[in-house]
Design goal:
Layout (H helix, E strand, L loop, with lengths): L1 H7 L3 H21 E9 L7 E12 L3 H11 L3 E5 L9 E6 L2 H14 L6 H16 L6 H11 L10
Helix pairs in contact: 4-5, 5-6
Length: 162
Amino acid sequence: MFHEYSENMIGADNQQERLKTASWISGFTDGEGSFVISVIKNSTTRFGKQLFPEFVITQGAKSLNALVAIKEFFGCGSIVLNKRCDNHNEHLYRYCVRSISELKEIIIPFFDQFPLKTYKQNDFVLFKKVVEMMSKKLHLKEDGWNKILTIASKTNRKKIRF
């Protein structure tokens, strides 16, 4: 998707700039981003919980312009303010993409083409599996739900899961 798009741009300079930006976004995500599969209690759902796959990059208010540039690059997602109530001087902003279709059609193909270089690549691979399973509605069946929970428990290795 991104390679085809860059070939359609006019001039070699635009193509080079798009590739530089794509590489920068991949590297920035390695440092500041995450691929999260949240499980949230929701008594109205079949299993009493709900799955939220989410691509997230978090930055302080001083670097909000980086998140705006990333949002413009992808053309999807949203930027949300997380007000801080601790001793830090600035609030945090989160660029996040939660839509299964946007994750599947935009975010995942991007990181397939511009892979991460850190351990986050492993989280991405697991995240990709979960998004694919959810796009096939496998999370609505008990065996699919359990497989997704098993996969999700292996992501974000610094966090205690479930």
